[in-house]
Design brief:
Blueprint (H helix, E strand, L loop, with lengths): L1 H9 L9 H10 L4 E9 L2 E7 L1 H6 L12 H4 L2 H17 L3 E9 L2 E13 L5 E10 L1 H23 L3 E6 L4 E4 L1 H7 L19 H12 L4 E9 L5 E12 L5 E10 L1 H7 L2 H14 L4 E4 L5 E4 L1 H7 L3 H4 L10 H12 L7 E9 L2 E14 L2 E11 L1 H22 L4 E5 L5 E4 L1 H7 L8 H5 L4 H17 L3 E8 L5 E12 L5 E10 L1 H15 L9 H18 L3 E8 L2 H8 L1 H17 L6 E6 L2 E6 L5 H16 L2 E3 L2 E3 L3 E8 L6 H17 L5 E3 L4
Parallel strand pairs: 26-27
Antiparallel strand pairs: 1-2, 1-5, 3-4, 4-5, 6-7, 6-10, 8-9, 9-10, 11-12, 11-15, 13-14, 14-15, 16-17, 16-20, 18-19, 19-20, 21-23, 21-26, 22-23, 24-25
InterPro entries: Biofilm_reg_signaling (IPR052155), GGDEF_dom (IPR000160), Nucleotide_cyclase (IPR029787), PAC (IPR001610), PAS (IPR000014), PAS-assoc_C (IPR000700), PAS-like_dom_sf (IPR035965), PAS_4 (IPR013656)
GO biological process, one term: regulation of DNA-templated transcription
Pfam families: GGDEF, PAS, PAS_4, PAS_9
């Protein structure tokens, strides 16, 4: 219904007669959305003309008389200014605007979705603005509630110690939490099919039976079975499998909560089996692990540690950990080993000496406790040599970047994805006379023209979405006051997660290129000799004149001019003086025209003039006569007085033609009829 109201206003179906006003009120009052018809009084002055009943009775602004009052009459300045700015924007841009806002009135938060539509009079001026506001307070609150519920769900999924697996009714994996990935060793991507690799082959029939029972709305709680990790080790698990229902009670999926109970089962197994599992874990662990005696000597080493140390079991057995460490850390480890009562885990970073090569590692010392007594230690080594070298390489890379940026003539900036300036190269300080990075964001945006700012803002938003580079051209004014064109190339910098967290923008001075482009445009659309629009540009203006006159129901005249003795001037005085003659002719014609008229050189000594908004042919004859009189006056060409004349043929739109070709054809016929009748004459097509 609100769209019908908008159509009525947009299509000019407003009748101000007394019997239509009640009808409009009736139509608007039947709509639950808030409808405001605002009259444009002056810049930033908008008056309520019509307000429907929903707005009067349900809008948070209560017990006020809307009609005849201005926005600032009903709202305080802080709330009125952004609203007035939006109405003014619709008026200035002459196009609709849709936005959502939030406002607190008398302690009540109101959230609305508003569309503003400009309404024009027959002259094309915006005289009214139609505002339709939908109260979305409840919707926003529900969305926030849903977001909170989702946040709780995600928190439960990610922070619970139990592994969680969710599948749909086709047994496709929908969700897994990090605990399940850690438990089984498989990522969600590796579990994307309908085959579950962590189910041992002999347990697949059992697992399918549990799934079928859940699909039949029968849950399973505390079911104990065996599962297999990605590294091949098997674990004992306790599972609770439940169907997931939608709001109508239909089963749409299955959730499985898995708890590792291996340690419970291990207590029930024989000591030999326990030792076997321990050795398997120790052997296949990807982290280097050393089993140390109380004195810190190596008792056992897993393959990962042998590979890291580049030693065999025999070479490493009996070696003290302190022998591999720098002196200061070696002394601390020896003291730690002597305190048998210490049961806390400790860690430190060390440079290990491995075959004359330095390896950087995080060393974790974990006590081995038996019957409340420390009997040994595990030394778990996390080799971070590659990471440290990468960090150093990154630091050097950043230093190189700053070195390049600090000495580059290009303008180099680093922004956040939201436009916050983090870094500005010295070339910007040199160009502007100050460092833009020291300015607040509000002042930075004022340094760019509004249209350019919108293009840059849209480019940043798209770059953040798709992670693709972009190029925009900007006109910036430096400390000299001279405007300079820059081609700005924005390149996104991605995080490890593939998210854009920085945008590097390099601005290159393209003023000379822009100047060359402008020259090319002038060559393409302007006559090189007279500087007047050429035939191509004049015909384009004539086409636009036809469209505008048709829309506004106006008339205009096309004057087609041809020299009566140009060939004689060329033959008698030469082509150079002929060119000078044409330039003088063009200047005289321009002096006879109004700002709203257009002129162009069609070719040779042929010219065309568009006289816009002509009321009658008498006006055309008057202007044409003034032009002929000017063109009859003598011309001074290199000290020689030359006299010449022109003939004019005139066609009127729409009487003599409604297309470009028809108007030129009828004007040309009138022109050459005049030439046959003696030249130096004005003939309208209607005179033929």
């Amino acid at each position: 219904m609100a769209d019908h109201v908008r159509d009525i206003f947009e299509k000019g179906m407003i009748d101000t007669t007394e019997h239509m006003i009640p009808l409009l009120h009736m139509l608007m009052d039947g709509i639950s959305d808030y409808i405001f018809l605002m009259e444009v009084i002056a810049p930033n002055r908008f008056k309520y003309v019509l307000v429907n009943q929903s707005a009067k009775t349900r809008h948070p602004i209560e017990d006020v008389e809307w009609e005849g009052r201005f926005i600032e009459d009903l709202l305080d300045r802080e709330k009125a200014e952004p609203l007035i700015e939006r109405y003014q924007n619709v008026f200035d841009e002459n196009r609709p605007l849709t936005y959502e806002d939030e406002m607190e009135l008398d302690g009540t938060v109101f959230r609305g979705h508003t569309s503003l539509t400009p309404l024009k009079n027959q002259g094309g001026d915006v005289t009214y603005i139609l505002g339709i506001t939908r109260d979305i307070t409840d919707v926003v609150e529900k969305e926030r509630d849903l977001n909170r519920i989702n946040a709780v769900y995600r928190s439960l999924m990610e922070n619970t110690a139990d592994a969680i697996l969710v599948i749909d009714t086709n047994q496709k994996v929908v969700e897994v939490n990090s605990a399940l990935e850690k438990l089984y060793g498989y990522t969600k991507q590796e579990l994307s099919g309908d085959v579950f690799p962590f189910i041992p082959k002999e347990k697949q029939e059992e697992a399918q039976s549990i799934i079928d029972r859940a699909l039949e709305n029968e849950g399973v709680s505390g079911f104990q079975t065996v599962r297999e990790r990605k590294d091949g080790t098997r674990i004992d698990v306790s599972m609770t499998v439940s169907p997931i229902h939608n709001e109508v009670g239909e089963t749409i999926g299955i959730s499985s909560i898995v708890r590792d109970i291996t340690h419970i089962k291990e207590n029930e197994r024989k000591l030999a089996a326990s030792r076997s599992r321990y050795h398997s874990l120790f052997k296949h662990n990807p982290h280097p692990i050393l089993t140390l005696n109380l004195d810190g000597t190596v008792q056992n080493a897993n393959p990962a540690s042998l590979k890291m140390m580049n030693k065999s079991d025999e070479e490493l057995a009996g070696v003290s950990l302190s022998e591999l460490l720098p002196d200061e850390q070696a002394k601390w480890v020896e003291e730690y080993c002597q305190h048998k009562d210490l049961e806390e885990d400790v860690w430190f970073q060390a440079s290990l000496r491995v075959n004359q090569e330095e390896r950087i590692a995080n060393v974790f010392l974990v006590p081995i406790i038996n019957e409340d007594e420390r009997v040994g230690m595990y030394a778990i080594l996390d080799d971070i040599t590659g990471k440290e070298r990468a960090t150093e390489a990154l630091r050097q890379s950043e230093a190189k970047f700053r070195l390049i940026a600090d000495h580059s003539n290009d303008l180099i900036c680093v922004f956040s994805p939201y436009g916050e300036l983090y870094y500005a190269s010295p070339s910007l300080t040199k160009f502007f006379g100050f460092n833009p990075a020291e300015l607040p964001n509000e002042q930075l945006t004022q340094m760019i023209e509004f249209d350019d700012l919108m293009r840059v803002s849209n480019a940043f938003k798209q770059c953040f979405i798709d992670g693709q580079a972009f190029t925009v051209t900007l006109e910036l004014t430096g400390k000299t006051g001279k405007a300079v064109w820059f081609e700005c190339r924005g390149t996104p910098v991605l995080s490890d997660e593939g998210i854009v967290n920085r945008i590097v923008v390099v601005g290159r001075d393209i003023s000379e290129q822009k100047k060359y482009e402008d020259q090319l445009k002038r060559i393409a659309f302007y006559d090189y000799l007279t500087g007047l629009p050429n035939r191509r540009l004049f015909e384009d203006r004539l086409e636009r004149g036809i469209v505008q006159a048709s829309r506004k129901n106006q008339s205009f005249a096309l004057l087609y001019l041809d020299g009566d003795s140009f060939k004689r001037i060329n033959d008698e005085y030469g082509h150079d003086m002929g060119d000078d003659f044409l330039r003088l002719v063009g200047n005289r014609m321009k002096e006879c025209l109004r700002e709203s008229d257009s002129i162009g050189r069609i070719g040779g000594d042929e010219f065309a003039i568009l006289l816009s908004d002509i009321q009658d042919t008498g006006h055309v004859r008057q202007i044409s006569k003034r032009i002929l009189n000017q063109l009859r006056l003598p011309y001074q060409l290199n000290g020689v007085k030359v006299v010449s004349s022109f003939s004019i043929g005139v066609s009127m739109y729409p009487a003599d033609g409604q297309s470009l070709d028809d108007l030129f054809r009828t004007a040309d016929q009138a022109l050459y009829y005049g030439k046959r009748e003696g030249k130096d004459q004005i003939w309208l097509y209607e005179d033929l």
